[in-house]
Amino acid sequence: MGVEISDEERMRRAVITLRSFIRDKPELNRLLLGNTESTDSELRQCLAMALIDWNASPPPLGEVDLGTHPNKLLLIQQAAVQALQSASIWHSREHMPSSDGGTSGDDHAKAEEYAMAINRYQQDYEKKKSDLKTSINIAQSLGKMGVRSEYSWRVYGLQGEEW
Hints:
By secondary structure, the protein is mostly helical. It has 4 helices and 2 strands. It starts with 6 loop residues before the first helix and ends in a 21-residue tail after the last helix. Residues 152-157 have low confidence and may be disordered.
């Protein structure tokens, strides 16, 4: 099985995975002057919101956390949606086009693109979440008679580390 991972270490690894998934790395953020768009604290909040979403969505299957979530990929996908929503709100608030000498610019003109991406990702997530929760609910009602489903596959090795 392996060495037990602390909740703090599990969250650290999840943040690294989420940051990689959304490609929020200094070397890729030239317009942000090599900074990240989201802090580790903000990404932890996104992961917490993704867990809240899972736990609050029907059917109720019992509380899960980072260590017990049945599908890490779905968790990261929803946390990414949360991160994009947060960034979209910020870009909408900071949107102020400017022009000078016939040249115009607006480094916050991303809100519409973010909204379209969020919508696509959220729809995909909701379908997969519903299918997985339904599958788990049926399997739990059948007890040991249940048949393994592709929806119940656990993803442990994102970024090569268990978390």
